[in-house]
Each structure stands twice: as C-alpha cells, then as structure tokens.
Amino acid sequence: MPSHFGGAFSTDAVEEIYLPRAPLAMALAQVRFPQCPELIDEDHLGQLRDRLKARYPILREDKAVGFLISAGGLAEAPPSERIVRFKDKAETWQVSIGQSFIALSTSTYSTRDDFCTRFEETVAAAADVASPPIFDRVGIRYINRFTGDDLVELGSLVTEPFLGLTSLDLTPASIVQSFTQTILHLAEGEITARWGLLPAGAVLDPALVPVDTPSWILDVDVYQERKGDFVAAEIDRQTRQYADLAYRFFRMATTDNLLRRAGGQT
Fold it and tell me: CATH no. for residue 51?
C-alpha cells in the first residue's frame, strides 16, 4: 500500500493533487434514464443548443455507434438511436445526448471540480429543457495511459500489486499483452478497474485513439445503478463522490514518483 494515505477507501480526506502532466487519456461521466425522446426532438434541440453553445458551439449528429459506460467498459448504444454531440472548438470536450443518456467526455481534463461542474451544467440544461422524471444510473470513468519513458519506468510509477508479470524478467520471452480486472463493491457504489499492458495499435475501448507503441492502461470506472429523481444537484453530488473514489483508486495504484513526474507538488 502506498504511503499517501491510510486505507484506500477510508473516511480520511484525500487531497486532489493537480497533475499538469497526468497520464490521463480520457475522462467520461454519464447519467442514464428511461427513454425521453423529446429531449432531442427538433423543438428541444434548439433550446439545448442555446444553453450549451457558449462552451460547446459545434453541433454534430449521427445515428452511428455511441458509447455508454458499463461495468464491462464502453458498451455500444443502439445504432438506430439519434445521438447529438456538442463539442468545443478544439473538439477535445464532447457532450453526447441520446434518448436515454447524457455523457460528457474529454481528453484535456484539468481538475475534478472543473469536470464535475461542466457535467452538472449539462445535466441542468437537459433538466430545464425536457427533464426525464428519474435517472437509473450515474457513472464516472478515468482511463490513464502510460507510453514512452513512462512505460520504460513503469516500475517506479505504479505500485507493486498493479505491476503483475510486467515486474518480472521473463527473458527470452516478452509480454505482448497482459490484463487484470477487479470489481469492488462499496456502499457508495461499484468500482470496475482494469489495468495492464497492450500492444501497439491496440485500445481497450474504441473511445481512445490508438497509439503506435505499446501502452500500459489503468481504467477506473465508478458507478451505481439505482433510481433517483432527475435533479442536477443530486446527480452532481453522486458524480463528485464517485470521482473521489476513482481518485483514491488511482492514488492506491500509483507512487509518489508518478505524482512528482506528472508535476504534482508532493
């Protein structure tokens, strides 16, 4: 167990350390709810665009594959479902809205507060325009990717329980791919975590752009499937709680050296 804090999921507060060079490749948050087709019909779509265009002025639409956070990773949404996507000008932030889900994703995550605030704003906009009566599920997911020098020095960046066979000298053999999955149950929610080595060009989920070198992935998904009134403040409370759990898992899996390397003050 790393020395950053006591029990990984104790009630002790764990300060979020800003990491300007964090290995985070993608952050996603999502709320799912019963079918609400009016949310994205022509009348309400214009209202949504008015509410979101300050941050996400680019509107795209398709009926192709969407991505939904699930216990096993990113699951495909039904291809016939209309999905609208609002993006910032750099197209590094994306709001995806369908008849039964709202999702926010980014490859340029900065802080938990910024990310959760943006998600709450999006949920609040939907609630004002055509609120679903309840939500069925709230989840947040962080996908970290180590490549290059970080991969070479993985043993100093990741704690021993997470290294697995990558910590062993298997000469003359070399590991092409090695993955572990763990599911944890807590009173606050469920955690599905996956980590391990992938070969060049491989991705754990299609939400990530492939890289042309091997990579080591730490994928942490925190969620709970339970019904609640579709109230932005309550969804925000749960999202922030799950983000805290995901961060605790990240800190359990990584070393102080990783925090220093990524620009954190430790």
Answer: 3.60.90
